[in-house]
Amino acid sequence: IMAMWRCDVSFQIKLLTIISFIIFTLVAADNGTKSLHLDSTTETSPESPVTTLPPEPTTTIRPHSEDGYGFVNVTARVGSEIFFDCRIPLSEDYVVAWSYVSPKTGILSTQTVNTMSFGTHRTASFQAPNNFRLKIGSVNHEDEGIYYCLFLSALKQVKKVFLK
């Protein structure tokens, strides 16, 4: 995995572009997603498999679906701290991106690439041997939405064609 860190930025941007294209074409599929809902109570509906955080602002949660691949609903208290884990296969080097879709706008935005974050509110870290973690500090209402963990092998390439 350390070879991945030595990839130049332009290579990671190209891979991120490919990842963004893939997410736009597969956004209807719920695999590998986490949905964050904000609530002012700690109660959940009996029909909904929702995990709720207690009111302490430093609480953390690590959601997992039963099969490891499905859609997970998480309810967080405003002001809490939350972690989403993304465990990847160890067989290859990967570029990993956490992306977010706002339910208000439907716009996809990339929050992190590997451990590089595009801000301080949502940050990424790596925990050996294979976990790329997204941290949302001091959750607020603008954090509500769907989070995707995307990973693309740096060893596999999309076919490139140059037409002159």
TrEMBL record:
Leader sequence residues: none
Biased composition (Low complexity): 41-51
Top-level taxon: Eukaryota
Family annotation (InterPro entries): Ig-like_dom, Ig-like_dom_sf, Ig-like_fold, Ig_sub, Ig_V-set
Chain residue ranges for the region called Disordered: 38-57
SUPFAM superfamilies per record: Immunoglobulin (SSF48726)
The name this protein goes by in its record: Ig-like domain-containing protein
Organism: Cuerna arida
